[in-house]
Amino acid sequence: MAPREQFSSKAGFVMAAAGSAIGLGNIWGFPTQTASNGGAAFVLVYFILSFCLAYPALMAELIIGRHGRANIITALRGISSGPITRKFGTVVGVCGVLTASFILSFYAIIAGWMMAYLLESVAAMLSWSEVSGWLTGFSLARNVMFLLLFMALTMAIIARGVTGGIEKWSTRLMPLLLVLMLMLIGYVLLQEGAMEGLKVYLLPDISQVKPALILDAMGQAFFSLSLGVGAMLIYGSYLSEKESLPVLGAVVTLVDAGVAFVAGLLILPAIYVAKLHGADVFSDAGQLIAGPNLIFQVLPALFDSMGQVGVVVAFAFFLLMSIASLTSSISMLEVPVSLMAEETRVNRLQATLIIGVMITLVSVLILLNFDLLFGLIVELTTVYSQPLLGIGLCIFVGWIWNRNNLLMEIQRGHAKIEQSLFWKIWPSYVKFFCPALIVAAFLQSVI
Ligand code: TRP
Questions:
Q1: Which of 46, 72, 181, 332 to mutate to test the pocket of ligand 1 (most atoms within 8 A of CB)?
Q2: 55-75 pLDDT, tens per residue?
Q3: C-alpha Rg value of the chain to the nearest Å
Q4: 182: Cβ–Cβ under 8 A, 6 or more apart, which residues?
Q5: Closest residue by CA, ligand 1 atom 7
Q6: Residue 304's pLDDT is what?
Q7: Is the CB of 154 within 6 Å of ligand 1?
């Protein structure tokens, strides 16, 4: 058997992990959640939760992954302490793999829309109005076609493996993503109306703070850091022993939260510029439009009203969204593919094909029953499954894994870690505080 692949450098890992983390969750989810949850109040809670809850959970995944050098199921079984915890490991692992696959099944649909709108901006440049109409209409044919296109790209990268696929493409696409985003922000902030959006974003509106705020912020933080399903775990498993996990994990968390914050500087001002251009940006209930209508109606209307420049801005915007989706979707597909390639006699290419086709079929099923299934799967996977799996992983690290082995894994690649705050706090923190906080957030939303 060929030796297990590894990221070729620290930077390669950071690009891949940040590529996984930075996605539609940052550029669309975070800004719109902020808008509908009272602006800066949500930003504040989100940042606190990112560092105090999501970062420790990310560390749990990275540490388990690098220690086990395997997919989530094998890695969890490897650190279990007896037959019962082994079973528990299997259950958590299987749920993680399923959740990752279902997240990909809806994510690929949305990403397909982004690519359709990307092509639409090209059609608009060429004044092909019939093509434009088809690309932006919600037809089954269009949805399926772009789903297939997006899944094919995701599979093409994953089939090429860790360094030749995940690392290479993340390293190419992430810098482009940042440049596109900064350019768009520069442009939008110069437009009339942008400052009103900035105010809504950065000034807290306490009257909008709802009891579900903490749960929303927690779900958002877990989604944004790709937690609970073994995506970060498998990326950690490709990391060299020479690297310091606490440091790299902190870098990824910072970059992820930073890009979410910066994306808010783009989306909220853009909404208010669109408002000035006559777009309807509030729902009947007086809420800021946040769902798909925002991305696929409000913003396109804004781009239209900008004339010739608008076409270029639209192109840049949907290219940004497509890239962000692709570097995230590969990390979702890697979860089941790595499992199959490691645990069966099927090779990576075959595993990618088999699983890719299966997930695509699920996506088509969702498209055929869109009203019934889409929202349901989004909610089940992101609101419930991810945080619950997060509790499972914290329990593994805090309660099941042999303490000495855990500490030894943290020491690898970080010489003087015994003197750090991380060493003193983190082990007991994931043991008690993280699971308790996740449960509390759940209970609070139920009550
Ligand atoms: N974090 C990505 C985003 O913000 C989405 C993502 C990638 C993800 N991999 C994941 C979400 C695994 C959950 C699980 O869009």
A1: 332
A2: 999 999 999 999 999 999 999
A3: 21
A4: 262
A5: 328
A6: 85
A7: no
| 143 Cβ inside 6 Å of ligand 1 | no
Q: Which residue owns the Cα nearest ligand 1 atom 6?
A: 226
Q: Which amino acid is at 349?
A: L
Which residue is it, tokens 């299997």?
90
- Give the domain ranges of the chain: 10-269+329-446
Angle ∠(110,22,194) on CA atoms, nearest 5: 80
The alpha carbon of 186 and the centre of ligand 1 are apart by a number of angstroms equal to 27
To test the pocket of ligand 1, the residue of 24, 30, 101, 103 to mutate (highest count of ligand atoms within 8 Å of its CB) is: 103
pLDDT of residue 2: 64
Instruction: Identify the three-state secondary structure at position 228.
Output: coil
pLDDT the model gives residue 88: 97
Tokens at 297, concatenated: 């109606």
Copy the structure tokens of residue 54: 């999501």
Report the atom number in ligand 1 closest to the C-alpha of 229.
Answer: 14
100 lines ligand 1 (CB under 6 A): yes
Alpha helices in 229-307 (DSSP H): 231-237, 245-276, 292-293, 299-305
- Where the chain has pLDDT below 50, the residues are none
Task: Give backbone dihedrals phi and psi of 242, rounded to 5 degrees, phi first.
Answer: -80, -15
Q: Quote the longest CA-to-CA distance of the chain.
A: 66
How buried is 445 (Cβ within 10 angstroms: 0-12 exposed, 13-18 middle, 19+ buried)? middle
Residue 284 confidence (pLDDT): 77
Q: What is the DSSP string of 273-295?
A: HHHHTT---B-TTSPBP-SHHII
Quote the CA–CA distance of 444 and 386 in Å, as a whole number: 17
Q: Where are the alpha helices (DSSP H) in 50-167?
A: 55-68, 72-78, 83-125, 129-136, 140-159
pLDDT, tens digit, for every residue of 276-300? Answer: 888 888 877 777 777 788 888 888 8
Our measurement of the distance from residue 360's CA atom to the centroid of its chain's CA atoms, rounded to an integer in Å, reads 19
Long-range contacts: 186-189, Cβ < 8 Å, 24+?
187/313, 188/266, 188/269, 188/270, 188/273, 189/265, 189/269
Choose which CATH entry (1.10.1200, 1.10.3710, 1.10.10, 1.10.4160) describes domain 10-269+329-446: 1.10.4160
